[in-house]
Amino acid sequence: MTSIPFYKIGASEVDELIMLINDYSGYDFSDYSMPSLHRRFQRYIDLNKISDFKQLLQDLINDSAMVNNLIEEVTVNVTEMFRDPSFFAAIRSELVPQLNKLPLIKIWHAGCSTGEEVYSMAILLKEHDLFDKSIIYATDINQTVLDVAKSGKYNIESFKEVEINYRESEGNKKLSDYYTVLNGEVLMNDELKSKIIFSTHNLVSDNAFNQFDLIVCRNVLIYFNKSLQDNVLQMFYNSLTENGILAIGSKETLMFSPIESKMQVINSQWKIWKKKV
After folding, report:
1. Which of 253, 272, 170, 270 is nearest to 215 (CA)?
2. Whole-angstrom Cα distance, residue 136 to residue 122?
3. Quick one: which of 108, 150, 102 has its CA closest to 128?
4. Residues 93, 115: Cα–Cα separation, whole Å
5. What tens digit of pLDDT does each residue of 252-274 get?
6. What residue spans define the domains of the chain?
């Protein structure tokens, strides 16, 4: 028996899915990177073994849960504890001295996904005696991944390699000091959660909501087109305190953005910038 191939979408089908999602959920992906959206829509089709695109559209119209699943596929990002250990080592060596001078440290993790890097930051702050005077706002457009982040529960299999990340980030204890294991799940310590506020925030449509000493948004802007990147970077700039710090992804840049001249480089490898006074 010959198997039916999965549907291969083109630019017009991507546009149809963008419009349908906007109509039925209010999420507007029209300023996302088209190649990225194409890959993620196609992945959804392949994973769900869809061969009839018109039927897919009809199913989405009739099933809001299906629309939400498609949105989750588009917005989910891969992350892990102390991802890119050298980035966290740079935070320790280059940013901690400045943060130490502040009476209160406000941090925004934008696009926090399932939260591993947020807990990594909380651990780093704790190890430098900054935790008690810090508050971390962790936001994402995707409620499902936010629920995972808020729970602080992770599959133990995903933690097998992260102890190495922690050591390479110049952690001075054992990562296992910060979690317990129960029934095959890693449970982050409740103390770490006490300084983290998890909330939905849509970088496409929502505005700035506070002033921050450090904004971390790594490998999110690459999914946006240039116009949306510029809008988000301007919002980040407006959200920074005097001498505030912005950390973006290693493959992202402030070059040719509206805030390039207003920021100075702290670490060029890990794209860490400081607001000029």
Report:
1. 272
2. 8
3. 102
4. 23
5. 999 999 999 999 999 999 999 99
6. 11-75, 85-275
Contacts of 201 (CB under 8 A, 6+ apart): 110, 139, 140, 141, 209
Look at domain 85-275 and name its CATH class.
alpha beta
Q: Which residues pair with 108 in a beta bridge?
A: 137, 215
- pLDDT, one tens digit per residue, over 223-249 is 999 999 999 999 999 999 999 999 999
Contact (Cβ atoms closer than 8 angstroms) between residue 69 and residue 35: no
Residue 159: predicted pLDDT: 86
Structure tokens at 125: 């702050």
Q: CA torsion, points 249, 254, 258, 261, in degrees to nearest 10?
A: 140
- Can you give the pLDDT at residue 1? 47
DSSP letters for 27-87: ---TTB-HHHHHHHHHHHHHHTT---HHHHHHHHHH-HHHHHHHHHHHH-----TTSSHHH
Whole-structure pTM value: 0.89
**First-last CA distance in the chain:** 69
For range 10-17, the mean pLDDT: 96
Q: What is the pLDDT of residues 64-100, one digit of tens each?
A: 999 988 998 888 777 899 999 999 999 999 999 999 9
pLDDT, tens digit, 9 for 90 and up, residues 91-115? 999 999 999 999 999 999 999 999 9
Dihedral sign computed on CA atoms, order 61, 66, 69, 74: negative
- Token pair, residue 179, equals 């979690």
Whole-angstrom distance, CA of residue 134 vs CA of residue 99: 10
Residues 159, 165, 168, CA angle at the centre, nearest 5°?
Answer: 155
46, two tokens? 């392949």
83 burial via Cβ count (<10 Å: 0-12, 13-18, 19+): middle
